[in-house]
């Protein structure tokens, strides 16, 4: 089977091809086209096919990671959306909850009030009410009121509508009927319901998730349809699958219908790729460290399992989101991060970035402010004579002029300023890792750092040293690991149902029936996607809490019917999980189950990176030796440093630091005092022997 993975980043679009039958691999990296990312995707994809002699029609599946939905929210460039909700509840989206990020600030920004996804004038109310505990109808839906709302929204130029009714997670009939009326009255409009997007309790979060779906729906649908047409026009008639936020992929048709699946999905592929690399290297505790041109994305893998977010912390641009998502923490730190002095004269690097256009000064595309890439070039850690991805060559003199001007403003030498730029950005990245580890009770010293992205291997050893992490793993294609991660993912769909019960009187028969129904619904989705039943597996879980608590912990549930023995095991798991998360438990306390979940996974063929060459030597891989600036024993100085060609390094070879390892998609720095080896999977494993090492 021939697969292509395409990951669109802020600066570069990464493309990787593999043939799972022959093991053939080809890669390409082109500049991202921010105005229309599909243009960069098609240009890079067709260039790869032409260069490698691959017939487009032979590609069976294109797997795509996109930030289209994320960018629409972050930049406020979504659709003009409307809402239909219950009479008297027009302002649920505005009021939110009493919790605040900054408890004592009267000037903090609340995005749902300062920049609402749906303007108040576009929120329409209708009569109709369902009530708990089973969703019985208290008042019938006013269908004429829905038609009136549709006419008003159409006249206001609204192109998408979210239908959000109270207690629709118990019974979706009112939402479904209202949606049908809206689709009939507003042909061409994107219509979604809160029960389809997130059928669980907590109306503010559920309504906001539906509002996000309506806000990004037309944007995502147009992008996916445009890309699908372009692929078909170029002869790529295979299936298009899109990365989802839950760590799986979904078909293009599913994403066009449920665009909220892709919110924050652009970052998930990198974590999955890093997890796959770590698994092949025999490591089960990993910190994935993805640095591109614009951002640094950090994920955690514990005991081989990628960490997912919980309901308390899942948000995008400050808007709460009730959907399963890979836990990825992002900061504005990358190769394009700009160095500057703030109004107080302090030395800053990022989050402002030169991005893809104009890019770092060294790219020669009109950039004028010094960036992290320029600083690495000044210190000799990048090779100006080596063509980067897409044939790009770096202008060392231009980079030096930019850093020199900045250095003069600081009263520093050029190399000292460049080293300072790297020290600041490395410190920012290390602090971001601490926020996901130390602040959550995780000791990073027990983990390996998987450094990837175009700039990850440049900074991985330095950040690991700051955190006393002993080992850094650099994948075979570090600059394309997110694209590679797409080729390691399976189809995945999630289903959830709110089901309240307590440990003393839980209805086990109903609980089992609900789980069976969720699983049956997912099985139908996989059948529609033409996935064989034997290739599908399911995992059941529940959201549990002690009585009186406000938020839950997700606990795995056993397959099959739940009896007294099985549910007793579940309660024990919850006590243990609560003690691990909060440091205490209440073994005699009553437990409440509030949601049941099923995650379905449809297994697909996987990419396996090619093995490194078995022959050759370090001498064969040597390109040259040149000066690179490092801080050794507290002093910044040039150090003679060998440059090696990554593709020529055989398995088992040892590389002593300092060393620079070059490849088209990235550059790896092995600092003084460190050592690197190429393992049997082709990873470059850097060992940092001293916790005091400071590259």
UniProtKB/TrEMBL annotation:
Record-linked SUPFAM superfamilies: Actin-like ATPase domain
What GO terms are given for molecular function?
5-oxoprolinase (ATP-hydrolyzing) activity
Q: Which residues form the Hydantoinase A/oxoprolinase domain?
A: 206-494
A single GO BP term for this record reads:
glutathione metabolic process
Q: Which GO terms describe its cellular component?
A: cytosol
User: What positions does the domain Acetophenone carboxylase-like C-terminal occupy?
Assistant: 511-680
Under InterPro entries, the record lists:
ACX-like_C (IPR049517), ATPase_NBD (IPR043129), Hydant_A_N (IPR008040), Hydantoinase_A (IPR002821), Oxoprolinase-like (IPR045079)
Q: Which domain of life is it from?
A: Bacteria
A Pfam family assignment: Hydant_A_C
Hydantoinase/oxoprolinase N-terminal domain spans which residues? Answer: 4-185
Protein name, entry field: Hydantoinase/oxoprolinase family protein
Q: Which organism is it from?
A: Lichenibacterium ramalinae
